[in-house]
Amino acid sequence: MKNITLIIICLLIPCSLLAAEGIGTVKKYTGRIEVFDGSSPRPVMLNAPDTALNIKNKVASKRASTALVVLNSGDKIALSENAVVSFSENNKYSPESGRVVFSIKKRGAETGTVIVGLKTAVIGVKGTEFLIDVAEDGKAKVYLKDGEISVDSVEGEFRKHGKVVMDEYEAYVRKMMGEYDKYVTELQKQYTEYVKTFTMKPGQAISIDGQDVNTLDFDEKTLKEFELLDM
């Protein structure tokens, strides 16, 4: 009977260690920060810096609060107010709401690619800084500061809409003829490509709404949020 008990304990130990595998810490924070352990819907409110994080944990910042997560890999993830990010496994992070800033260290072939999961897209990263802003309805905006990232569709192809260049005289004529809306629709089709994956370059910003991808401006307010990585 004792032997059977010892065998059961030995079998259970690896599972327990895996469930509590440390991945980093909430290094610094301001305001109210909550951590979900993945097994209970009730969070624990942080009351000290350098709080350990494990796989399956989720970090949430409340109103007027910020947090800096430093992972064992050296990656940094900063949460602006009212943001949520989960850590489903090593090298896989999922921003669920709010504005989350990522600083991902360069990786070699042996360490693999960091995966950032969104509702309709998966972002592959090997070393860069970028910000993701996720709305309540799942729409996301991606702002790339440094490096390159690949964006892959979870299902089907993206409709990647380029910036439409309109001929002013042609637009005026079409308005006079009552064909302006048709003209705009025709132009939009010309500047739309269907792709399963694409690469973003430094300084680029996009919005992802389902399968529709549009170009955005990289504004000063967003650029300033990268300072959260140095808090």
Automatic annotation (TrEMBL):
<dbReference type="Pfam" id="PF04773">
    <property type="entry name" value="FecR"/>
</dbReference>
<feature type="domain" description="FecR protein">
    <location>
        <begin position="59"/>
        <end position="149"/>
    </location>
</feature>
<keyword id="KW-0732">Signal</keyword>
<dbReference type="InterPro" id="IPR006860">
    <property type="entry name" value="FecR"/>
</dbReference>
<protein>
    <submittedName>
        <fullName>FecR family protein</fullName>
    </submittedName>
</protein>
<feature type="signal peptide">
    <location>
        <begin position="1"/>
        <end position="19"/>
    </location>
</feature>
